[in-house]
Specification:
9 helices; 0% strand; 181 residues
């Protein structure tokens, strides 16, 4: 196991790394990283709630709000929010929290409100998440497709052809079979 205990995970996926995650969104999406559901299975029921609590508390601490009543709402929010987002990876959630802190959603930088955090996740982040995941998957498929079409090292394309026209010519001659994208 990459992280033998929960505190190792909490250090590896901590709020102080939001900036790194913001600079590497594709890595956050494609990382082999546990979901909150798996996190609970690995480190005990309720671990995901604690992880969410750490991140939401960091948002509160960085906000201009100092209302002590809001601190009490973080625990309840963390429990309900972690149940709703348990299928998302820690790295994806870090991307959301980092973007939220940066003010990308709902004027989030103006005040602290757990309800606004939830709304921002479901109404703003998830549509972005779907689009970005689709983009990254498409890019990976395109790269894999192009790799399969590459010619072996040392192979010379006849004069008058480029890689694409030579590929099509070889298809026409029946020398090769079409590669499915």
């Amino acid at each position: 196991m990459k992280y033998p205990n929960r505190s190792d995970v909490e250090r590896a996926y901590a709020p102080n790394l939001w900036g790194y995650t913001l600079n590497n969104p594709e890595r956050a999406y494609m990382a082999e990283c546990p979901t909150l559901l798996i996190y609970d299975k690995l480190y005990g029921e309720g671990s995901s709630t604690i992880w969410i609590h750490i991140h939401v508390t960091a948002l509160y601490g960085a906000s201009p709000s100092k209302d002590k009543e809001l601190v009490n709402s973080i625990a309840i929010f963390s429990e309900t929010f972690s149940a709703e987002v348990r299928l998302y990876k820690l790295s994806e959630l870090m991307l959301f929290f980092g973007r939220y802190k940066a003010g990308r959603y709902d004027n989030s930088y103006q005040s602290f409100d757990t309800k606004r955090i939830g709304n921002a996740f479901f109404k703003e982040f998830l549509p972005q998440w779907r689009n970005e995941i689709a983009l990254y998957i498409h890019r990976q498929q395109q790269e894999a497709y192009l790799e399969r079409r590459e010619l072996p090292k040392g192979y010379v394309i006849p004069k008058g052809y480029n890689p694409d026209t030579w590929y099509r010519e070889r298809l026409k001659r029946g020398e090769i079979k079409a590669i499915e994208p």
